[in-house]
Specification:
CATH architecture: Roll
Shape: globular
Number of strands: 5
CATH topology: Nuclear Transport Factor 2, Chain: A
Number of domains: 1
CATH class: Alpha Beta
Distance between the termini: 25 Å
Helix content: 10-25%
Largest sheet: 5 strands, antiparallel
Radius of gyration: 15 Å
């Protein structure tokens, strides 16, 4: 299923993280829901999807628990021989009740590439 949406590199990193969790019973690098950038997607609403003109980046913004623009997620896509695939996801949260300590922009590839 992962290969249908993600590039081979990202699939390999996601599977490696899953195997780490299964083997060690520890929390891996993915301690959040991949598509929402959140551990608790309850209360997500007002989802807006746009494509940055002249790029292969699809941006999703959403509100959570009645707060505005809580999260911005950029899906970096590339065309492969099998069609369009996500090559990286960059998450940017803002300080809010939902994310009391905003993270600097987080690249999924960079996060998954970190040593354990």
């Amino acid at each position: 299923m992962l290969r249908h949406y993600f590039t081979p590199k990202l699939v390999k990193l996601i599977i490696h993280d899953r195997k780490f969790v299964e083997r060690t019973k520890e929390v891996g690098h993915l301690d959040f829901i991949l598509l929402t950038g959140s551990q608790d997607p309850g209360g997500i609403g007002n989802i807006r999807i746009t494509r940055k003109q002249g790029t292969n980046i699809v941006t999703v913004r959403y509100d959570q628990n009645d707060e505005k623009d809580v999260m911005k997620i950029d899906y970096h896509c590339i065309r492969t021989k099998n069609g369009w695939r996500i090559s990286d996801i960059r998450y940017t949260s803002r300080k809010s009740r939902t994310f009391p300590v905003p993270e600097p922009e987080l690249s999924l590839v960079q996060q998954l590439s970190q040593p354990y």
